[in-house]
Amino acid sequence: MAAVLAALGGGGGPELTSVVEFLEARPATRAQLERVHAARYLDALEGVARMGGGALDADTVMSRDSWDAAIAAAGVAIGAVDEGIGRGSAFGVTRPPGHHALADRAMGFCLINNVVVAARHAQTLGKARVLIVDWDVHHGNGTQALVERDPSIRYVSMHQYPWYPGTGAEGDRGVGNVFNVPRPPGLPRATYVRDLLAAVERALTGWSPDLVLVSAGFDSLSGDPLGGFTLEPDDMTHWTKELRARVAPAPVVGVLEGGYRLDLLGAGARAHVRALA
Ligand SMILES: [Zn+2]
Predict the structure, then answer these.
(1) Which of 28, 72, 121, 270 has the fewest CB atoms within 10 Å distance of its CB?
(2) Range of 43's domain?
(3) Looking at residue 107, which CATH number applies to its domain?
(4) DSSP letters of 58-98?
């Protein structure tokens, strides 16, 4: 999070600092979280933190402060929706990430599914149709599972496949609202750029969203240790601009997902936010 804030602050250059306003959000409320997660699951997460932390699965570990961090991150995603509706765009710097989290299970560093909490919040504000575009290198299995039976939300994900977490087959269509783009590593970057936009076009055929959320993972950039895609920060700028043009006047709100090389994470977030701003 510090790397992203540094990249968007002084490290973003004068053209970014002059147009980006930094705001703090309030933690998500219990009611906002329970739109997405089971009450017993939330109680269990809070309990693990209160006991000093512990491992939830092989790669998802909580410390004493993880519950506070998780509800803060979900609150940031909610706050980004509020600001995005008012301003046309916003970006939520969320840690921990969220797109692997299921209704009642933590996975892959994710405790609370920030982007789905944000989508449900947007719907309470009258943004009935929400498009989620996920360009993290991993499939957002949690997001898909939480929305795949609800036609009011469409989910487009491009991800390395087969790869963690193993889900995200092209044949998964939900109720016609899931658009998966599984791709092998090492393809020319232009292929990934083109194929994600083609899936967005399919999702927008005969349907226009009231709000767009981007699950903005920067582990799809070339050089990330957890992925094999070949994208460059300029591609995130291009995607963001194309997305805004296609859905205007719907607000576009980015929510941070993965990204495991700090310099790339900062550069990717800067490229995305530059195009949002
Ligand atoms: Zn990821």
Answers:
(1) 72
(2) 2-276
(3) 3.40.800.20
(4) TTEEEETTHHHHHHHHHHHHHHHHHHHHHHSEEEE--SS--
